[in-house]
Amino acid sequence: MRLVMVNRRDNSSAQSAPVSSLKVALPSPVSVEELDTLECLNDGGDKRVSRFVPGILVKFGWHQEAEVHALQFVHGRLSVRTPRVLHHAPFPNTFLEPWDWQKGVWYFFMDECPGVRLDTVIHRMFPAELDHIADQLRILLKEMRSCTSTMPGSVTGGPYDNRFMPHPWQPPHAFPSATEYLAYYREIFLEFCGPEYVDELFGCFPNGPDVLIHLTHGDLLPRNILVDGSTITGVVDWETAGFYPEFWEYCQMHDPGWMIPEWARVLARMFLGPRREREIAAVSRIIRDLHYNNSVFC
């Protein structure tokens, strides 16, 4: 088993936190069974996050390549801390079918961000604390929106590789514009929906050359925001990150399944004006319909 020596970062909230002199040996496992005995922190079914040693986590399972690229891209670009990738399985040099995930980047080690998940404490927060959360997230979104692109796609400049356009619908390349992005979605949905439904669904979104494309987390919800009190100490789970039209992050943050009063207050302070209900409902339907009509999951 090959070992990789890394410096372990002190568990503070800053991206530039000091690195301790302690060396940690990270293995290059060849099977999931080698990691099964670790303390499991989050079991998502096809992906699992476990603690390797205090301060270092390992995420393993279904394709991890997109998240490794995303974490490497955002690290040091934002004022909020994000996990630092320490070691990962080699990037594949050829296309892999979904069932060949263990031949690609099926695991990676990262440092552990401090704090607790916002969804576990948000119901106990006072209004002033919720407003503090909102103000920090507003700054984060401003930083992310300053990182723009003309082409919807992954942070590498290639196509999306996540559940929003899953196999067998993964696009062959990034899209030239938001118009082509929406047109591709339309073609997917015409495989299993009638044209009237498709026109109504995708007619909800702004379209044309003025639609902004910028860096997007894709799942910026309380479960992926870490806090200490009302201070955000980290944002995790970047597997769906990429460059998306502006409406995507907005709608994902307004996921109806997360619309508890406390989170609704945070969003109302972040996004002024009437809630864009048609767009929110449309994105929710897109994700639902993709899941239920995907042969990989059926």
From TrEMBL:
InterPro entries: AGP_Transferase, Aminoglycoside_PTrfase, Kinase-like_dom_sf
Every Aminoglycoside phosphotransferase domain range: 65-273
PANTHER family found in the cross-reference section: AMINOGLYCOSIDE PHOSPHOTRANSFERASE DOMAIN-CONTAINING PROTEIN (PTHR21310:SF58), AMINOGLYCOSIDE PHOSPHOTRANSFERASE-RELATED-RELATED (PTHR21310)
UniProt name for this protein: Aminoglycoside phosphotransferase domain-containing protein
Organism: Wolfiporia cocos (strain MD-104)
